[in-house]
Structure formats: structure tokens, C-alpha cells
Amino acid sequence: MKSALTWKIIAKCSTTKARVGKLTLPHGPVDTPVFMPVGTQGTLKGLTTKQLEELNCQIMLNNTYHLGLSPGQELIEELGGSHKFQNWNRNLLTDSGGFQMVSLLKLARITEEGVEFQSPRDGSIMLLTPEHSMSLQNSIGADIIMQLDDVVSSLTTGPRVEEAMHRSIRWLDRCINSHKKPETQNLFAIIQGGLDIDLRKKCIEEMVKRDTPGYAIGGLSGGEEKDVFWRIVSLSTDLLPKSKPIYCMGVGYAEDLVVCSALGVDMYDCVFPTRTARFGNAITSKGSLNLKSTKFAQDFEPIEKDCNCLTCKKYTRAYIHMHATRETVGCHLITLHNVSYQLRLMNSIRQAILNDNFPSFIQQFFKELFGGKDNYPIWAVNALKSVNIELLP
Amino acid sequence: MSLSFNLLKTSEKSLRLGRLTLIKNQEQNILLDTPNCLAYTSRGCVPHLTPDNLQAIPLIDAVSVTLEHFIDIQPPPSTQFPGGIHKFLNFEGYLVFFDVRDSGKLKSVSYNTDKYVSIYTCHGVRQITSDSYIKYMNIYKPDIFASLADKITDETPSLKRIKKSVDRTLKWLDNALSNEGIQVFGVLTGHNNQEERIRSAQETAKRNVAGFVLNGNFLENTSRERINMLKSSLDHLPSTKPRLAYGLGTPEDIILGVSEGIDLFDTAYSVKMTDAGHAFIFSLDLKNDLDSSKQQQQTINLWDTNFRNDVQPLLIGCQCYSCQNHTRAYIHHLLNAHEMLATVLLMSHNLYHYTNFFKTIRESINQNTFFQKAEQFFKVYGEQKMEETKNSTIIYN
Ligand SMILES: [Zn+2]
Ligand SMILES: [Zn+2]
């Protein structure tokens, strides 16, 4: 199908499956591997678009379900789409809205036609079809849009998983057929198939035939065993065409980003860094700090010494402790740092791949975050072993 | 370090244009042209604004910080910080004014004695003595601090209580003045008693204070009534020292306060309006063709669904970050979605607008058009208020 992006692989790691790419979308370039922060309702948790630009953020997410409710499809179209609405001139990605419905609304029911749900406004039964999702996403106008898929929990087993996989393929076809703006918006397919290797293979085989501009690995990060998670990711990156960007949905913990990049994933999104900031948690290369804790009341160090974000340059942990969860500024400062941390981590991953020292970067990263061998998560050790990396003791 | 106040222009009435000059060291000095405002802070930050967003409001040169927000634990942990309060709060380019109580709160529970003042913090009631206050000030090193005051919060205090409050406040002022190094503003008391207000003003004026603090937080009164209450103090102050007043936040309050010779205000009102979802649109520079028979709005309420598809900025022509980048429709959406960016953008605009309002006041004093503009202001923004000011000798005489 038509594509509104160009994708160039600039460097490949000689040990792992990691790669650095340059993705060019209608609203500018995106350096991959990339972490995309989530601005659910057309805004990223109190940060201005200027602050995001200064952090070098090249792409963020909006959620179709939320924008569909407010300001609503008609209005967002009247106002010229989501970029204009929030004054964000860089790239946007929207989800299909389906996942949000299934996870937020108890009464959602899936039929061949689409996702049935009760309107949170007036309680009436509404239906999100692949066509409706495309129409909404066309109105929002993001640079990357996602197909409506049949989401089942990654803990589900049995025939429902297979049904969902086949239905996701059928829905992809309906999305492709109803997508009105393929010259400005890139539709990504979402690989389903649960934790079943054969179903995943089948799904990839069928979806690759549709030749969408990019592919997402869906149906993961739902509480499944991490040791199964990475195997599905790795299988997907092996089977998907190397000429297309690969997006692993819902991944955002630092160690997951490093491991999945080594497995060959190019794009990630997660609400974690911004959500955790609201509870006073700052992410650092040595783990998370809960700045609400009184142990920071007299800690006059920055959150991270070598971080060059505004927060770390100007304020101490003690200052943020005074504000965390009490003043919106406390939340803004931690959010700024957390987004900065995520983007900085991705930048270091890219630099390490470019310099072809990604393996030693990974070793140092794990040593710093977990302190040593005894604390490494087994799944990460196994995943990294599969791409020829032994962690340091 | 030195602090000086010069009157640049005075009129036969109380109206004045001044300049507060703070010379911090050879490299740094801060000029604060008055009438002006101190940015209100909560826990030492300007609400909703990270420092880059605060810096985008160029006319803010001074902040007002409140000890009340710091003493959940005593001594406050931040007193261990080695670099002073400017550095701790990242206010190094600003004049930092310190006071004990939060000027944005109209009423506070208190029980004061000869020894201490009670303060309501988020962890309950705390006591602060004059000595411990001075001790903290010597550690924080603000540029100016207000002396400890025995503020009365009873509705109808006895004369005995009012006298006691004046005496205690003067005693604590003497204690603060015996401490060298940081400039002190004396707090005027006297509550609603004319004679005690005069006594407090006269006694405070005798002392070596750098300026005066007046409290205009009288909940139920109109602008005019509040100003009249303050006037009994103002009439007994030397003209050569700056006067800061709390509780005068609306444009009417400011205009009336300025015409009575108040030099400094705070921005608590702009925070209150921001939190209510309002954006300022009032102006002192009113066009002559404005229909004065129609009452104009001073603010717009961004919760109003009429703004849902309004692609104008909060205020056409405003140069603030919000107005240069965002629409009313977007801010309306942010409020509805309970997104924190709503108050970031509203605060940015409101503070920008508020500080600019002071600038136009200074310009009009300089050009001798202040009273004329004030009259026009009251005409355009409210018939009632026009009547109210017509009866006064200050604006129309
Ligand atoms: Zn930082
Ligand atoms: Zn503005």
C-alpha cells in the first residue's frame, strides 16, 4: 500500500540485531530507536510543546479514544487536526482507540463488526468499527495511525487468541480500504497471535502481504511472563521485513527499551515515565527515586548529576521533595526530567549502535541499574544471550 | 548589598511613581519600578510555572515567599542548604521578599501570644517566635523580610486585643531591626480601629524600616472600603518609603490603591483567577470608541462552552507565550480534560497581562493620564463602580 514515510537504516550493531534508522515522516525526521511519550488528550502532562521541542522530542502519541470524546471528531476536524489544535509541528502517532476501550470500559464487547461499548457520555451503545477508527484517525491527522485490532489479554489462551489474530487481519483489510489519506498518514499493521509462536508467524505472514508502511508488535505488555514476551518480540523482528520500522507497543521501562532495541525494535511508547512523575517518582540510571520520601528533604543533589534537563540544572531533590504531589510545578519538573531521561537513554542507545559499542553499553547499563549479576532479571539475561551478549558479573 | 527607594514623580495627591533599587553586588542589581507587583509563590514556586515559563514573563523582577509554606518541620530542612534561598528556589535573578503568612489566604486560624505566632501548615498548627523567624531569615538571606506581626483573625476583636496586637507587632519589629544585614519592612496593624491604625503607622514610621506592609485582606468589603481602611494608616507614613499592600488584587483594587500611594502589590489574585479557569482581558488603555454604555468583561471564563471552537488567542494582540501559541478552544479543551497544561497557559497569560497592567499604570502616571484613564476604566467596567468612585475625592477631584 501507499506510504508517507521514508525509512533508512543508518547503522547496524555487529553483535546484536539493533539498528539505527532515520524515519522521515510528514512532520519531520525521527531518529530510531525512538521512545514516544504519550500525550493522551493532546497534551503531554503539563509540558508545553516548546519544552518538548527543547527536549528534542520528535514524535509523541495522542489517544484516539480520548480525542474522539473531547474535543470530538467534528470539532478536531474543524480546528484543523491535532497538530494544529495543540500547536505541535512535529510528528504524532495515534492508536486505533480499540485498546483504550477494551481496557477502560468494562462493558466493551467485540463482534466481527467492531468493538461495541457503552458511551461514557450518555450510556448508549456505540460501535467502533475499523472504518470508524480510520475516519477518526484521518480527522485527527497523525503521521502514523494504527489499525483497529482485536485485542485479547496476553494471558488469554485457546481458540479466542486465534480468532482475534484472524479478525485482526480482516480488520486490517477494512482499515486499508477505508483509509482516506494514505499520502499523508502512515497506517501501521498490528501483529497479534498472543504468546503462540505459530499464530504470530501466521499473522506476520499475512500482514506482510499487505505491505503497510510499518508494523507494530501488539498484544504484549499485558502481564505475560517476560521470558515469553522477549521471545515473541525477537521472533517478530526476525520475520518482519528489514525494510520497515518495527514498533513495540506499550514498552517503556529502561531495561525493556535496551533489550528490545538489541532485539531489533525501532519504536516504543509508554505512559510510565509521565504517569510515575505524578506520583513523585523520578527515573534515573540507578533506578527510580520516590521524591515524596522524607529522606530527600535535605538532599541537595540534583535528581541526576549528569542530566542536563532544566530540572537537574536548577533544582535539588530537596526542592522537588517540597513540591512533589503538592504543587503542579513539582509534577512538571519531574515530568520534564523523566521525559528527558527517556529521550537521553534512546540517544545513548543510538550513539552506541553508531559507534558499534552497543554490547559494552548494555553491559554498563545493566551494571549501573541493577548493581550486579545477582539482581539481573533472568529474562533480560536470556534475551541478551540470544543476541550474543553476556552481562558483566 | 543596598536597597534604596526613590520617588521619580509625585502629584499633589497621593499618586506616585517610584523606583526600588537593589544593589546585590558589583555585577548584579535589580530595579523595580513602582507601582509594581511581587509574584506570589506557593512553597517557593510561582504556581504552575517552571522557571523557563516564568522567565518568559519579562516584567517579573520580584517574588514574595512565605515562611508558612516551609515550616511543616522546624527548623525547615531547607535551612541546611548552604547557598541561600535565592539559589535554593532558583530565584537568583529576582528580588526575594519574605513574609511569615500567606498573603493569598484571606483568613487563617491563629492563636498568638507574646512569644509566638501560630501558623496553619498542611501538617497542622505550628508556632513561630520572633527569634526563630530572624534566625531563619539570616540563613535564607532574602533581600527584604516583613517583620513578624500579630495578625488578628477574630471578626470583632476588643480594643484591648487590637492594642495588644499593635504593641506585640512593634516589639517584634524592634527585635527584627536589631538584627543587621537584611532590610526589614514593618507590618502595620490596628485592625478596624482608626486610632490604633494611626498609632501603629506612626510608631512604625519612627523606626528604621525600609518600607511598610499593609494588610488589605478584609473579606467582605468593597475595594473602596478596603482602601479607606488602609488610608488611615497611609496618611501617617513618610512618603519616602515604599508601601506594600496585601489583599488588593482586582484591577479596581490596584487602581484605587495606586491612587492612594501604594507602591507594591502581590499577584495572589491572578493565581486565584487562573485556578478558576479565567483569563484576564481588562485594560487601562481603553479605546475611545469603546461603547461605555455596555459593561465590559474583565476576564473570560475558559470553562464556557462558547469557547469550544474559538480559535482566537486568549487576548488578541497579547504577546505572551499562550497567546502566541494557543487558542481559546485548546485551553477550553485542556480544562475539560483536567489537563495541567490549562493552568500553565492561563497562569502564563494572566501574569504576563497583570505585570503589563502595572506597566501601563506607570506609563499613565508618567504621562499624567492616570486619573483620566482610571475614570474611563470604571466607566467601561461597571456602572456601579463608577458611582462608587464618583463619590470619592481621590479619583475625580
Ligand atoms: Zn534531569
Ligand atoms: Zn496572553
TrEMBL record, chain A:
Catalysed conversion reaction: guanosine(34) in tRNA + queuine = queuosine(34) in tRNA + guanine
Catalytic residue positions: D95 (proton acceptor), D269 (nucleophile)
GO cellular component: cytosol
Record's keyword terms, sorted: Cytoplasm, Glycosyltransferase, Metal-binding, Transferase, tRNA processing, Zinc
Subcellular location field: Cytoplasm
InterPro entries in the cross-refs: TGT, TGT-like_sf, tRNA_ribo_trans-like
Residue ranges, annotated region (RNA binding): 250-256, 274-278
GO terms of molecular function: metal ion binding; tRNA-guanosine(34) queuine transglycosylase activity
This enzyme's EC code(s): 2.4.2.64
GO BP term, example: tRNA modification
Binding residues annotated for substrate, in chain numbering: D95, S96, G97, G98, F99, D149, Q192, G219
Keyword Metal-binding among record annotations: yes
Coiled-coil intervals, chain numbering: none
Domain tRNA-guanine(15) transglycosylase-like: residue ranges: 16-368
A Pfam family: TGT
NCBIfam families associated with the record: Q_tRNA_tgt (TIGR00430), tgt_general (TIGR00449)
Family: Belongs to the queuine tRNA-ribosyltransferase family.
Purpose: Catalytic subunit of the queuine tRNA-ribosyltransferase (TGT) that catalyzes the base-exchange of a guanine (G) residue with queuine (Q) at position 34 (anticodon wobble position) in tRNAs with GU(N) anticodons (tRNA-Asp, -Asn, -His and -Tyr), resulting in the hypermodified nucleoside queuosine (7-(((4,5-cis-dihydroxy-2-cyclopenten-1-yl)amino)methyl)-7-deazaguanosine). Catalysis occurs through a double-displacement mechanism. The nucleophile active site attacks the C1' of nucleotide 34 to detach the guanine base from the RNA, forming a covalent enzyme-RNA intermediate.
Subunit comment: Heterodimer of a catalytic subunit QTRT1 and an accessory subunit QTRT2.
The protein, known as: Queuine tRNA-ribosyltransferase catalytic subunit 1
Organism of provenance: Glomus cerebriforme
From TrEMBL, chain B:
GO cellular component: cytoplasm
GO biological processes: tRNA modification
Required co-factors: Zn(2+)
Residues the record lists as binding Zn(2+): C318, C320, C323, H349
Matches recorded under NCBIfam families: tgt_general (TIGR00449)
Recorded family membership: Belongs to the queuine tRNA-ribosyltransferase family. QTRT2 subfamily.
Biological function: Non-catalytic subunit of the queuine tRNA-ribosyltransferase (TGT) that catalyzes the base-exchange of a guanine (G) residue with queuine (Q) at position 34 (anticodon wobble position) in tRNAs with GU(N) anticodons (tRNA-Asp, -Asn, -His and -Tyr), resulting in the hypermodified nucleoside queuosine (7-(((4,5-cis-dihydroxy-2-cyclopenten-1-yl)amino)methyl)-7-deazaguanosine).
Listed name of the protein: Queuine tRNA-ribosyltransferase accessory subunit 2
Organism of derivation: Glomus cerebriforme
The organism's taxonomic lineage, starting at the top: Eukaryota, Fungi, Fungi incertae sedis, Mucoromycota, Glomeromycotina
